[in-house]
Amino acid sequence: MKWNLKINHPTKGIESGAELFAELYSPSFPDIVLIDEDGVCRPPRYEFYASKMGRDLIILTGDTQPSLEDIPAHYEVCSEVLDFVASLGCRFVMTIGGAPTSRPIREIYVAATSQKVAVEYMEKGAVIYGNGKIMGASGLLLGLAKNRGMEGVCLLGSTIGVPADREAAFHVFRFVNKVLKSDLGAELEKSPY
User: Per-10-residue mean pLDDT for the chain, 193 residues long?
Assistant: First the structure.
């Protein structure tokens, strides 16, 4: 894995003052490059942002993950992420994903590292996500965090499976803002994308 540290690079659309401070490039990511609107390419990556909103936050975003068929690569990348954030003092992990549903309902589901944490989020308006599976990094980061003694939750927006279900994503985003008592990325909702 290659770590590339950058300092003082503001995020796009996150009003909280979050700043990019690290990037993760991995040979486990797909063998593609992403091209921006100016025609400039870059390899896929995970980005780590730092934000202070009454508490210190590390926000991880990414434009890819290892292939679902490459299970060892998923474990390796998720372990690298957790090693890194743990070295910075992270004790709680929150991941976000989608939960497929056949009905157009807007629920926030929660899976957690303990019943205590699950109940805390249920009391904030989430519904327990029971007897299911969470695919990819959203689930594996949570499970591996638990194995390391960290606490955490995965918040899942109900989605009817439409590609880029924007409304489901913003429903989860609003819930996260409510839980964190923040306006993290409020400008993102105004974006046409």
Answer: 34 59 95 96 95 80 90 96 95 90 83 97 94 91 97 91 74 86 57 43
Place of tokens 């194995």: 147
Residue type, 78: C
Do residues 82 and 92 lie in contact, with contact meaning Cβ atoms separated by under 8 Å? Answer: no
Name the CATH architecture for the domain at 91-182.
3-Layer(aba) Sandwich (3.40)
